[in-house]
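Give me structure tokens for this 550-residue protein.
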Amino acid sequence: MSKKQKLELTWIGKEKRPKLEPRILLEDPTQSYHAERRVTEGDLFDNRLIFGDNLLALKALEQEYTGKVKCCFIDPPYNTGSAFAHYDDGLEHSIWLSLMRDRLEIIRRLLAADGSLWITIDDNEAHYLKVLGDEIFGRDCYVSTLVWEKADSPRNSARQFSTDHDYVLVFSKMPDWQPFRLARTEEANAIYKNPDNDPKGPWLPGDPYANKPYSKGRYEVVGPTGRTFSPPAGRFWRVSEENFWRLDNEGRIWWGPKGNARPSIKRYLSEVGKLVPRTIWSKQDAGSNRTSKNEMRALFPGDASFDTPKPERLLQRVLLVATQPGDLVLDSFAGSGTTGAVAHKMGRRWIMIELGEHCHTHIIPRLQKVIDGEDPGGITEAAGWKGGGGFRYYRLAPSLLEQDRWGNWVINREYNAAMLAEALCKLEGFTYAPSETLWWLHGHSTERDFIWVTTQNLSAEQLQALSDEVGEARSLLVLCSAFRGVSADAAAERWPNLTLKKIPRVVLARCEWGRDDYSLNVQNLPMAEQDQEPASDQPRQGSLFDEQEP
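Here you go.
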């Protein structure tokens, strides 16, 4: 199979896709947190912590952040079976794949053109996740599978093998994605020697031969002792004969201590760059499960809430390879908040999403310590972190529509006028930006295309006045309770700069309304979903909109 051919998984329920409601986000300033002073000029304050179902939260981010996320790191549930006690193996696997598919599709849209996705996983689903990722990102956008050494001692109670590693699957938005290189280590530099006291410093002998055919790569050279050398059969000199002797005159050809060895081309330590990332990440470089548990104990003494948190050094290595300072990092399975803590210390902007109550009991206190400079563990010392910056806390708004006592879908009573305008702007694909001077302008899609949301029942006189104020050079989408005195067809002809739509009728079929949980805790999922029938267009008791036909 060629790399361009598409390989797809099939599973129970794959054809079913949720019709996600693009919720708005509501900031809670009492949960947001910022440093009392700036520590550096580069302090970042626009980070986001979102409390709510991560699939709905990803959908909520889509309009504002599509194409802006440089790196997404997720540590999803591994589907080991413990969370699926009430389902058979086939169904549990299918549910997991569907829930991951729905999230990965949005994450791909959020990634920048030079963005990448990093997923930690174990053997149970790694290979299925690889094929699922190929289907969503394309096989040419699969980068690599890293092996992270998570264990630092064998587990003798294991029935077959003691598992020492997890995987990190890496996908990119575009096929030509390139990772950033890592700083050189003492171990990497130690292989460079200087046996001939070369004034240019330590060097490493390089193979002078190459397998790739080179038109000027077939010649014979005579060494200092008169011994002759030619490339082996099927191989070629890397450089032309002219360049070979130029390198020799510059002292860059090594003939061995006695001058009779096969020639090598010197590679000087002073001339080599940073290190290409390798696919095996040892516990010395990226930490282990024991490392992360110790980090959590230091932050929350006596608390064993997290069995397998990820060490800060693992996240540090991911962000060194995938991002630069100031880039945006996303984690939609925030867990204990390691991604945000590490990104903050490394000067990256971040967004984290978490549904569990540990968002409040663990993530927020952890981030507060980071911001206050009171977290001495993890990568704090290596990053030179002194505190600073902040984050804003958001929760998902409730569903825009709710059912009244008669089963009709009506606007949620928790929505005020501003929330309603923002939600409908998002549903219609407009940027919510209410004007301080134009009463009819709630948002825009272009410089000349605007939207106005109102619960009024508009008359023909009101529409005429509105059309006159908007003018011929602009267009306005009007979402209203109703309009009277003119039919829809006549309105379009009479006021060509206005497009009239009634709410909530215009959005009834758009989404799954009133659903707040798409989590990977499958015990919260219904066994079967009933199709939602659009409510009648007739006026109904309890609605915030008293619709009247013209």
